[in-house]
Amino acid sequence: MDFTAPKGMRDFLPAEMQKRQWAMGRIGGVYQKFGFLPMETPALETVEVLEKKCGEEIRGQLFRVDDGRLALRFDLTVPLARVSSSSMFKKPFKRYCIAPVWRREEPQKGRLREFYQADADIIGCPSVRAEAELIACASEAIQELGFPAPVVRLNDRRIISAIASRLISGKEGEVLRIFDKREKIGDAACVEMLEGVGVKKEAAKKLLSELTGSSGNESRLKLAEIYSKEAAQDLKEILDLLPEYSKAIKVELDFSLVRGLDYYTGPIFELSLGKEMGSVAGGGRYDGLLSMYGQGDSAVGISLGIERLLALMKEREFEKQGVFVANAKEGFYGSALSVAAAFRKGGISALTDLNCRNLKKQVENAAGSCEWIAIVGEREMKAAKVTLRNLKTGKEELLSIEDAARKIMG
Q1: How does pLDDT run across 168-186, given as a tens digit for each residue?
Q2: 118: closest CA among 320, 282, 292?
Q3: Looking at residue 316, what is its pLDDT?
Q4: What's the rounded Cα separation, in Å, for the pair 403 and 398?
Q5: What is the reported pTM?
Q6: With 80 as the cut, is the pLDDT of residue 81 above it?
Q7: What is the pLDDT of residues 89-121, one digit of tens each?
Q8: Average pLDDT over residues 47-70
Q9: In angstroms, rounded to a whole number, what is the distance separating the alpha carbons of residues 258 and 157?
Q10: 6: cis peptide before it, omega within 30°?
Q11: For residue 360, what is the DSSP state?
């Protein structure tokens, strides 16, 4: 019998789980500082709800149960849309969710069947102030994990759609899907694929020139005005707002940014940590999506690539649990339990020996999980104190439980 985790899924042992919980806690903390509220929905949704949004590719990746009537969610946006359609939230409604999603695709490097997403969305705000808020929030969350400030790539679907439409009328969707692959396949392959769907070679080259040319945000804004004055104004407002959040946020208008999801209707953005580490967050405005679920509100969201961020995070030594309370002899085990209870009451994590080991073995065991050990024996009981030893330095003192707690807390 095979006792490994199912294909494309993982077990997280304590060391890795500490790292994941630390990162998710930091991200959630930043989301909350920006006023986003936590929300959770069931892992299972009806297939009818899920299929309203997903295309053929995702439809084939659903994990179905209950004779195909239910399936595991493939993202966190659909559950939000469903809940929003039946709930009366005060607008704008700001929610975040850090949770697993599932896609039944062939596992490969960097792609699993079960993975986490860390989403933040704003429902009911037609102003691009929402985009600026999400970008600033995500940038701060990434820095909270120890990374430098990311570079923001900013575009608008209205602009790239207009460019494609003017140059190659009637093939906008196909063109953008191909162009979305440009960074992976290169310009030459991109032109070849465009020719394959009937686009003339010169038109394909002109499209690449329009989308990748024109350096500097000012010149790009002028180009944007040619195709959509409204989109250009929205981009300018986002550019003006972001420095007010933080001078560290660097933004580049990039008309080659497509982001593959067809439901984006306005500004789109990606946050990148450079060529080596690549994109670690992305999102955009999806005003039309909620109408599919009977809700006509505007919406904009961002998703942090938490699995990618975790993979990029440097190994860090996470804080060991507070204190191991050791009993010098078996007869002092009850006293050790009482001391541990006192530490816990003070908010300190405390462990005791469950295996009836001698003091030497208890000290050896404590060194692997705690920074401190509090020894309880005859001398300590007579003095109503504990011997507190720092397992890193070896220094020890006879202290009251209150003083020992203060020492442990730093």
Answers
A1: 767 777 777 787 777 778 8
A2: 282
A3: 61
A4: 9
A5: 0.86
A6: yes
A7: 889 999 999 999 999 988 887 789 999 999 999
A8: 85
A9: 7
A10: no
A11: H
Closest among 334, 227, 238, 230 to 283, alpha carbons compared: 238
The Cα 179–Cα 143 span in angstroms is 30
Report which of 309, 305, 286 is spatially closest to residue 297, judged by C-alpha positions.
Answer: 286
Residue 402: count other Cβ atoms within 10 Å of its Cβ: 11
Q: What is the rounded CA–CA span in Å between residue 76 and residue 306?
A: 14
Does domain 1-150+273-315 fall into CATH 3.10.450.50?
no
How far, rounded to the nearest angstrom, does the alpha carbon of residue 22 sit from its chain's CA centroid?
12
Per-residue pLDDT tens digits for 283-307: 999 998 888 887 778 999 999 999 9
CATH 3.40.50.800 is held by the domain 321-409: yes
Per the rule left: phi > 0, alpha: psi between -120 and 50, beta: everything else, 385 is: beta
pLDDT digits (tens, 9 = 90+) for 216-237: 899 899 989 999 999 999 999 9
* Contact (CB, 8 A) for 323 and 23: no
Tokens of 309: 């961020």
Torsion on CA atoms 222, 224, 225, 227, rounded to nearest 10: 140
Report residue 351: phi and psi, to 5°.
-115, 155
Q: Judging by DSSP bridges, how do beta strands 350-352 and 321-327 pair with one another?
A: parallel
Query: For residue 373, is pLDDT > 90?
Result: yes
321, HSE (Cβ side, Cα atoms, 13 Å): 20
Main-chain dihedrals φ then ψ at residue 111, nearest 5 degrees: -140, 115
196-206 burial: b if 16+ Cβ within 10 Å, else e: eeebeeebbeb
Residues facing 119 on adjacent strands: 97, 303
**Helix or strand holding residue 15 (H, E):** helix 14-33
- pLDDT at position 317, please? 60
- Between 262 and 328, the more confident residue is 328
Instruction: Name the more confident of 315 and 314.
Output: 314
Structure tokens given for 407: 């020492």
Angle at 256 between CA 254 and CA 259, to 5 degrees: 100
Domain residue spans of the chain: 1-150+273-315, 157-246, 321-409
CB neighbours of residue 211 within 10 Å: 23
Residues in the chain: 410
Integer Rg of the chain from CA: 27
